[in-house]
Amino acid sequence: MAYKAPIRDMQFIYDEVLNIDQYSDLGTFAEATKETRDVILEEMAKFCEQVLAPLNHVGDTEGCVRNDDGSVTTPKGFKEAYQQYCEAAWPTIGAEPEFGGQGLPHVLTLSLQEMASSANMAWAMYPGLTHGAYSALLTHGSDELKAIYLPKMVSGEWTGTMNLTEPHCGTDLGLLRTKAENNGDGSYNITGQKIFISAGEHDMSENIIHLVLARIAGAPEGTKGISLFVVPKFLVNKDGSLGARNPATCGKIEEKMGIHGNSTCVMNYDSAKGWLVGEENKGLNAMFVMMNVARLGVGLQGLCQSETSYQNAVIYAKDRLQMRSLTGPKNPTGPADPIIVHPDVRRMLMDAKAINEGARCFLYWTALYGDLMHVSNDEAVKTKANDYMALLTPVLKGYITDKGFENAVNGQQIYGGHGFIEEWGMSQYVRDARIAMIYEGANGVQALDLVGRKLAQNGGRAVQSFFGEIDAFVKANSENAELAPYIKGLKTSKDSLMAATMWLMQNGMVNFDNAGAASTNYMHLFGICGLSYMWTLMAKIALEKKGSEPFYDTKLKTATYFMERIVPDCAAHLAKIQTGATSMMALSADEF
Amino acid sequence: MAYKAPIRDMQFIYDEVLNIDQYSDLGTFAEATKETRDVILEEMAKFCEQVLAPLNHVGDTEGCVRNDDGSVTTPKGFKEAYQQYCEAAWPTIGAEPEFGGQGLPHVLTLSLQEMASSANMAWAMYPGLTHGAYSALLTHGSDELKAIYLPKMVSGEWTGTMNLTEPHCGTDLGLLRTKAENNGDGSYNITGQKIFISAGEHDMSENIIHLVLARIAGAPEGTKGISLFVVPKFLVNKDGSLGARNPATCGKIEEKMGIHGNSTCVMNYDSAKGWLVGEENKGLNAMFVMMNVARLGVGLQGLCQSETSYQNAVIYAKDRLQMRSLTGPKNPTGPADPIIVHPDVRRMLMDAKAINEGARCFLYWTALYGDLMHVSNDEAVKTKANDYMALLTPVLKGYITDKGFENAVNGQQIYGGHGFIEEWGMSQYVRDARIAMIYEGANGVQALDLVGRKLAQNGGRAVQSFFGEIDAFVKANSENAELAPYIKGLKTSKDSLMAATMWLMQNGMVNFDNAGAASTNYMHLFGICGLSYMWTLMAKIALEKKGSEPFYDTKLKTATYFMERIVPDCAAHLAKIQTGATSMMALSADEF
Question: Measured between CA atoms, how close is B354 to chain A, in angstroms?
């Protein structure tokens, strides 16, 4: 299956919507010049289109194999592609210079992640998880741990994993049982079983750095007794060379619906040596750093599978001849018209296009705040950035993966019967996209995080700031007649979200189940409002430049489609939210 | 995975909602007494729960294997289950007594199909396709052909298939190339390749009766030159014994996303002997008989995977302990509460429950008209029945398979990470359910059939009749205060559907693309309206009997949920429809 990196769209966001150049005086942004950005985009595009994309179907059909000795063999070509990736220094782009990184802003690495994950999601998870583990160690690890692990993780020689889930607990980490015993020499012995560990064991790197949640003997019960440990596959000698094999082993590879190319392992820790990351019993805090990075990355995965499915659906829709257009033949000399002439095929393509481009903008726009949170000199900006990251992470994760899956299903639908046949490849996008709705906190958990924690933080400051920004934009552009139709859509979605927020304030506290019952609809409403704002920002620029390049005219048409065909869902979400929890909770358990 | 036939719900529909007993003076209904119905339901339930359900996962993991000699081996246990099914005379239930059937009404066989397909969709397709082929032969075959083939198809000794699709055409059958040459002795030689042929070759029956669309040499181009042929795997001697092997062979088994237990074959016809069914060049008419039967059956499959996924999600939601209820512990002595206490889990369960029970009622209610069309003595009823079958078939197929897939995905979601692991079985329901949106006319084709053909037939008589029935019901029950909240929901959805219908009348003819652009939303709106009506009918009975059995109270709560949480989608569908085709069709092909 084909993949073509949407470079022009990425440039549009970086150069025009976000206007990255305006930050060139801020720390890491100094290096992120237009020239650098373009070179990076073009080189990574080549690698993803030419190396990773052709391995995607291979990964799906071969999967990962656990050998009798517990080692894991990844699909043919995965290891070589990873070697190429490291040789080209791709893992270093966004990492700290102190540990060998190039220190470019995170917002810029997002497009690299997007390309990799669009071309080959299962492969991209190996470096993706390394990045998450790197972030947690960077933020919470001691200088000694950082010195030992980070340089090799930055170079890509070592990869990383996250070990949270156990058979009896995923969402509810307070129940976890993996034990840590203090050896008295600074190390701990870790014992327990972890499941669903992506990239848990494989042959792509010389060492694997596991970050493992465990409970120190005598620690309090629940979430307040959980600590985070770094547990390397091979112990590291003082000189940096690899020592003994740590008893952190793959007991089984799970057979999954998708992402077959990634090794999802049951990991057995049998008195494996580990070292504490951060403080005792504060493991969840340290893990949250990793999880926020990961959640943005998973939202991105939703976009990626939607994008690739869309691209391949477009190719097929232009090629497949079937029936005549309802308004008269469009390919009169052929036996039938290409199916792209049919409105219902258009509906599926336009839904995907409008959501993909809006979601990309929303992801990048939020990621920019992630950078500003660190590098801005303005306290107000830093506060706002912090607020936005907290508030929007669950929206980006939940909304974009839900819609991404829907779009992947629609892309498959356009192929008709061929979509159901594995050989054609469209099924894989659907099966791969499915996991993004589940892992890193199932989407229902994201929705609850949004309404139950994020909304109310600091007296609702974050959401008020978001509304305030939209109001200011609307006001500042109220004289722009050409922009009016887009502003109208933005106002509709913003008014719905505001009404839903008010409803939650009045009813969610009285009965917490009202908040829970509203949560998923609220998250989707927030997603639509966010994308409406992005589309209005994009439309404004496109209006200024229309005529100069067909790209801008297409943007305007797609923005119009978004307002006409996606925004109407807001009313349905709001109406459902406002019915409250009563009918949802009315049945006793045995009435089901 | 478990499956428990929802017998009480089926009885509720047959006995109370449809009140089948009122038709006992009408032909085949005489035999369909309450006692007979109950025995059939209970016996079939046992077979499906105990024999078919345990084979479902086996079918998924083993799949079908094409052997070197072209024969196909079905998964372990499939053949034996089929033998048991035939020995118990299940295939005869709904068939004509003239050919060995028991002649019970079709509406009654629907529940048997439902149970089989819920327990094991891939297996149920073998007898399901036989039923479709039987119907086409019964309606259009000559007496001679009927005498040769039907008795053995009724007994189940022979199975049937439908051969429409070719590599370059599925929806657009006018393009088909398979040739038929007249041998001058009443037989034809059929040559060509068909793809996606479900149950095309297998080891479950001694003969396979293929119904094949082909073009007789010299026939007109397009759909007006297509004829239907019966092509047996083994020729049948005068005495009914099997003769020579016909060169109708399986060239390949497709690797599919789901329904692995059904053999989806590439069928090669290499001068295979066939006999004309119906008139020359009128093959599509004959095939439509089969397709309408099949489409109702596919709508049912949507319900079935939704139902089984739901049932297993309920089991897990009651068992899995994770987090505490938002309103305080519900399982204080346990380490956490069962996840069924969480509103967002409820949302997914209630969505499925409300749609499943509404869809079941809508399917059975429509199938009853299918029977009345044949047996009623009242011309007005026959006309209405004919109209409803034509109008509602695409709605049932498209809406219920779309929603059924969504519900299957939600059932999987409730399992969290375990839902993604094949061992747990929830992935299979999703993968199996996916095909129902595609085959027998992709759902977009159903939607176009609805707005482009069915709505306008006989000057819109069918839809007016449907609206008239709802209006009369609303009027007749306007004094029923307890029913008022349900009537309100029904009116909302009916008013939206009416407004959409008016819009289509005014705008669909001016620009056919407006009809195409509205089609899928219109189909969904129609589905919601149909289910609203069903839920109001069910609520009326439940109100009359509430308190006598907890079943009725649960029905009322579920009806309320449907009105509050599903009906609000109507407004979104209507708003989207009313935007027309402009933004959907705005892009030129190269702008995608």
Answer: 11
B524 vs A405, B402, B459, B529, CA distance in Å?
19, 9, 22, 9
Q: Is A573 inside a domain boundary?
A: yes
> For residue A423, what is the nearest residue in chain B, using CA coordinates?
B255
Residue B162 domain flag: no
Whether B479 is covered by a domain: the verdict is yes
Contact B517 A336 (CB under 8 A): no
Are B190 and B272 in contact, with CB atoms under 8 Å apart? yes
User: Do the beta carbons of residue B228 and residue B243 sit within 8 Å?
Assistant: no
Give the sign of the dihedral formed by CA A21, CA A24, CA A25, CA A27. Answer: positive
Count other C-beta atoms under 10 Å from residue A460's C-beta.
16
Residuewise pLDDT in 10s, chain B (592 residues): 899 999 999 999 999 999 999 999 998 999 999 999 999 999 999 999 999 999 999 999 999 999 999 999 999 999 999 999 999 999 999 999 999 999 999 999 999 999 999 999 999 999 999 999 999 999 999 999 999 999 999 999 999 999 999 999 999 999 999 999 999 999 999 999 999 999 999 999 999 999 999 999 999 999 999 999 999 999 999 999 999 999 999 999 999 999 999 999 999 999 999 999 999 999 998 887 778 778 999 999 999 999 999 999 999 999 999 999 999 999 999 999 999 999 999 999 999 999 999 999 999 999 999 999 999 999 999 999 999 999 999 999 999 999 999 999 999 999 999 999 999 999 999 999 999 999 999 999 999 999 999 999 999 999 999 999 999 999 999 999 999 999 999 999 999 999 999 999 999 999 999 999 999 999 999 999 999 999 999 999 999 999 999 999 999 999 999 999 999 999 999 999 999 999 999 999 999 9
Q: Do B422 and A516 touch (CB under 8 A)?
A: no
SS3 A236: strand
Q: Does A552 touch chain B (CB under 8 A)?
A: no
Choice among A440, A544, A564, A591 that is catalytic: A440
- Burial class, A179, CB count within 10 angstroms (exposed 0-12 / middle 13-18 / buried 19+): middle
How many structural domains is chain A composed of?
A: 1
**Contact at CB, B583 and A169, closer than 8 angstroms:** no
Separation between Cα atoms, residue B585 and residue A397, nearest integer Å:
30
Q: Do B340 and A592 touch (CB under 8 A)?
A: yes
CB contact under 8 Å between B565 and A572, yes or no, is no
Q: How many C-alpha atoms does A230 have within 13 Å on its Cβ side? A: 34
**Separation in Å, CA A271 to CA A176, A187, A226, A248, B540:** 17, 11, 17, 8, 64
B260 in a structural domain: no
Nearest-5° Cα angle at B287, B272 to A410: 105
Which ipTM value was assigned to this complex? 0.97
Sequence-separated (6 or more) residues with CB below 8 Å from residue A498:
A467
Shortest alpha-carbon distance between residue B383 and chain A (Å): 30
- In terms of Cα–Cα distance, which of B11, B13, B17, B4 is closest to B38? B11
Residues of A in contact with B326 (CB under 8 A): 452, 512-513, 515-516
Q: Which of B170, B343, B568 sits opposite A416 (nearest CB)?
A: B170
Bridge-based pairing of strands A158-163 and A207-216 is: parallel
Segments forming the whole domain that contains residue B546: 446-585
Tell me whether residues A340 and B442 touch, CB distance under 8 A: no
In A, which residues are within 8 Å of B405 by CB distance?
409
B299 at the A interface (CB within 8 A)? no
B 151-210 residues with CB < 8 A to A: 165, 168-172, 174-175, 195-196
Question: Model pTM?
Answer: 0.98
CA A352 vs. chain centroid, Å, equals 17
